[in-house]
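Handout, page 2. Input:
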Amino acid sequence: MTNLELFQAFVAPAIFISAAGLLVLSINVRLMGIVTRLRAFHKEKHLATIAGKKQEVLILQAQIKSIEVRAVKIKNAFFCTLLGIAGIMMTCLILGLTLYLPQALVIAILVFVFSVLSMLVGMFFYMSEVVIGLSSEKEEEQLYELIDVVSELSD
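Output:
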């Protein structure tokens, strides 16, 4: 392997790490939004429980379950993407080892492929969470309409 080929082999994983870093940032923002929303719903549920609004508590509990499903998907996306980044970093290290042990190239290729597949799985989790997130917003709208109706009936 020439120095130019080795340099090219190092650059590809480095570009992946940079791109994956932006992806992780995006997933993290989404995760924090979900956590914030969960906290708000738990607080609303607590206040509704104290106020004795049983119907509202049940409605909020259903919404909490829906958001928890989203949280699991985004957590899986986060984990798979981070696993992919770790694998790509390992690929860089193994590629450096090929200077002294050319047979390590096969291991580097396998680790790189596994890492990209892991990131791809993470993207599928991310996409499925986005789809659920869009439908969840509609459920939330219906939730607040139902809470308004229940509040009017109890007055």
